[in-house]
Design goal:
By secondary structure, this protein is an alpha+beta fold. The protein has one domain: Alpha-Beta Plaits (2-Layer Sandwich). It has a 4-stranded antiparallel β-sheet.
Length: about 140
Amino acid sequence: MDAKLAKKTTTKKVASKKVATKKVAKVVKSAKDDSTAKLRIAVSAFESKILDLSIQKILETAEKYDAKVVGPVPLPTKIRKYTVLRSSFVYKNAREQFEMRTHKRLLDIVNPNAKLTEALTNLALPSGVDVEVKMM
């Protein structure tokens, strides 16, 4: 019975990853047609509201410098669950459960110029937002 349950949960996870990779593949195909140089920005945060505000700031700075932006593409939310015993050793049935959700978005900027990259590096984003920039 447990093996069947485990198979069902793994197929659900794989299905959500396949959907996300299909979206990213569409973004990559459309970006490859236009140009060879692009910036790929992966933004992640624990709170989705703060993440959306930081994405909005990035999009506004890209608009100022007339850059073509593909995205943001929402990637699957990573959920980490932790179970902790309330007591030190006696009451095993008393447990607390915690979870951390990590929200992610993906942006592609096609043909970035030097002014745009400088503006993005000087951009002040709220704390708790992790930004990874790759040149492709």
